[in-house]
């Protein structure tokens, strides 16, 4: 059976989130550290795609991505995976409650996802006697929240390209 151009383009754009998820995990750069701040792209990617197009990223893929990140970064097995699943579960809950898709709604609802996931991440590492800087985690959360609209626009463009 032959694929037409529209169907091929749809399939290509539909696997972009999955490719990005595993590229970030395998690269070991889920947090982009720039001189004064760091942004956790992993959280933004998972939150946006579970919120807007849940069939693109399954929970198994998200968990596997977190485990891969743990192995590459040398963290205890499951710390990143658990925090990514918390982000995904908050996004799934918000998806059920959302009536209108707007940047402001998504951005404000991203706050509880960040808070819960970082609490789980910090608690997991703390209980396993792993050193973590709470101030670094707080600044990472703030800058991740600030950079969410930029990546929201980029991912929205990908969604629009997929539909056309």
Mean pLDDT across all residues, rounded? 85
User: What's the architecture in CATH terms?
Assistant: Orthogonal Bundle
Number of domains: 1
Report the C-alpha radius of gyration, rounded. 16 Å
Number of strands: 2
Q: Which CATH class is shown?
A: Mainly Alpha
Count of helical stretches: 6
Briefly note the CATH topology name: Arp2/3 complex 21 kDa subunit ARPC3
Largest sheet: 2 strands, antiparallel
- Helix/strand-derived category reads mainly alpha
- Order of SSEs, N→C? HEEHHHHH
Poorly predicted segments: none
Shape: globular
N- to C-terminal separation? 22 Å
Identify the quaternary structure here: single chain
Helix content: over 70%
The amount of beta strand, in percent, is under 5%
> In which order are the strands of the major sheet placed?
1-2
Describe the structure.
The protein is mainly alpha-helical. It has a single domain, classed as Arp2/3 complex 21 kDa subunit ARPC3 (Orthogonal Bundle). The protein is 76% helix and 4% strand. The chain has a two-stranded antiparallel ribbon. Helix 2 (41-52) runs parallel beside helix 4 (79-97). The two termini are 22 Å apart.
Would you spell out the secondary-structure blueprint of this structure?
Elements: H1 5-27, E1 31-33, E2 38-40, H2 41-52, H3 59-73, H4 79-97, H5 103-127, H6 134-163
For the structure shown, list the relevant keywords:
two-stranded antiparallel sheet, 4% strand, 76% helix, 164 residues, Arp2/3 complex 21 kDa subunit ARPC3, mainly alpha
């Amino acid at each position: 059976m032959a694929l037409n151009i529209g169907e091929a383009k749809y399939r290509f754009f539909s696997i972009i989130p999955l490719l990005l998820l595993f590229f970030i995990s395998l690269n070991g750069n889920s947090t982009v550290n720039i001189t004064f701040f760091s942004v956790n792209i992993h959280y933004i990617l998972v939150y946006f795609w579970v919120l807007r197009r849940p069939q693109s990223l399954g929970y198994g893929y998200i968990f596997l991505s977190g485990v891969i990140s743990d192995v590459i970064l040398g963290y205890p097995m499951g710390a990143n995976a658990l925090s990514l699943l918390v982000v995904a579960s908050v996004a799934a809950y918000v998806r059920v409650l959302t009536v209108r898709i707007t940047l402001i709604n998504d951005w404000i609802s991203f706050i509880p996802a960040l808070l819960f996931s970082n609490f789980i991440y910090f608690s997991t590492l703390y209980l396993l006697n792993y050193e973590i800087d709470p101030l670094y985690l707080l600044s990472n959360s703030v800058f991740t929240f600030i950079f969410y609209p930029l990546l929201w626009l980029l991912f929205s463009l990908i969604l629009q390209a997929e539909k056309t």
